[in-house]
Amino acid sequence: MAVCIAVIAKENYPLYIRSTPMENELKFHYMVHTSLDVVDEKISAMGKALVDQRELYLGLLYPTEDYKVYGFVTNSKVKLVMVVDSSNTALRDNEIRSMFRKLHNSYTDVMCNPFYNPGDRIQSRAFDNMVTSMMIQVC
Amino acid sequence: MADTVLFEFLHTEMVAELWAPDPDRGPRAQKIGLSILESMGFRVGQALGERLPQETLGFREELDVLKFLCKDLWVAVFHKQMDSLHTDHQGTYVLQDNSFPLLVPIASGLQYMEEAPKFLAFTCGLLCGALSTLGFQSLVTASVTALPACKFQVVIQKPRGPVPSLKEAL
């Protein structure tokens, strides 16, 4: 279960950012912002290394004492960042991968929507519902 | 399957509608019609550029992106691959299709040579849009020498320069 999910455009501005409302949201916005540096580092590191193909899933970007931040970059350089609670140790790598895959599919659906202009904030209800299903249920 | 024919008919109608001479606007209307066709292709290309490479891993360099256009994009839209790709390694690529499906119906003889370019506007936009989603600003033009063969020339624009970081600006 994620605590905060963000979709960042190629030019590094947020297309969609949502966090659980129980704590102060600015902290999560700041964490996502700082994680962008780590994402850029990973992307450029992969470009230089002589691997055959680059992976889209970036893995754990950095851990803090309460939270862990995971990243995923698409072929169109749109970054998906997810913050999860550290205390939730039951989440394994392949669960995070499948969450990112669902996010990627939903983002692609938003992109294919002819009423959506690329570069705008994402306001699709279907996307909202999918993100809600992934976030922690807070009473 | 019926899919190819549906797209061809739709495309033919789009060209006919946007090319129809409008007495109010005069000859400029036809240029506007062509740019509308190209921008429609651009938006479709942006969506395809997001959807088609979804399962593939990251592209390493420009040439990989062009190969993806020639193979996967062309197969998805026209059910065949591009016939040849030439490059000068300086950012210009020439994609040649010897039997372009949208030109095949008007291809017997030279009668419709002049009409051919407007059938290529949508496809130019398609290539440009897919490239823009994958991170490259480009200029795409098309030319027809012998129906139904046509060539698409893609010139990748170099970005204007590195974005200055805060440290340098201060």
Automatic annotation (TrEMBL), chain A:
Coiled coil: none annotated. It comes from the Eukaryota. Its main location: cytoplasm. InterPro entries: Longin-like_dom_sf, Sedlin, TRAPPC2L. Keywords: Cytoplasm, Endoplasmic reticulum, ER-Golgi transport, Golgi apparatus, Transport. It is found in: Cytoplasm, Perinuclear region; Endoplasmic reticulum; Golgi apparatus. It holds the Pfam family Sedlin_N. GO terms for biological process: endoplasmic reticulum to Golgi vesicle-mediated transport. Transmembrane segments: none annotated. SUPFAM superfamilies: SNARE-like. One of its GO terms (cellular component) is endoplasmic reticulum. Belongs to the TRAPP small subunits family. Sedlin subfamily. Component of the multisubunit TRAPP (transport protein particle) complex, which includes at least TRAPPC2, TRAPPC2L, TRAPPC3, TRAPPC3L, TRAPPC4, TRAPPC5, TRAPPC8, TRAPPC9, TRAPPC10, TRAPPC11 and TRAPPC12. Interacts with the heterodimer TRAPPC3-TRAPPC6A. May play a role in vesicular transport from endoplasmic reticulum to Golgi. PANTHER family: TRAFFICKING PROTEIN PARTICLE COMPLEX SUBUNIT 2. This is Trafficking protein particle complex subunit 2-like protein. The lineage of its organism: Eukaryota, Metazoa, Chordata, Craniata, Vertebrata.
From TrEMBL, chain B:
Belongs to the TRAPP small subunits family. BET3 subfamily. It is found in: Endoplasmic reticulum; Golgi apparatus, cis-Golgi network. It comes from the Eukaryota. Part of the multisubunit transport protein particle (TRAPP) complex. Heterodimer with TRAPPC3. The heterodimer TRAPPC3-TRAPPC6A interacts with TRAPPC2L. Interacts with TRAPPC2L. One of its GO terms (biological process) is endoplasmic reticulum to Golgi vesicle-mediated transport. May play a role in vesicular transport during the biogenesis of melanosomes. This is Trafficking protein particle complex subunit 6A. InterPro entries: NO_sig/Golgi_transp_ligand-bd, TRAPP_component, TRAPPC6/Trs33.
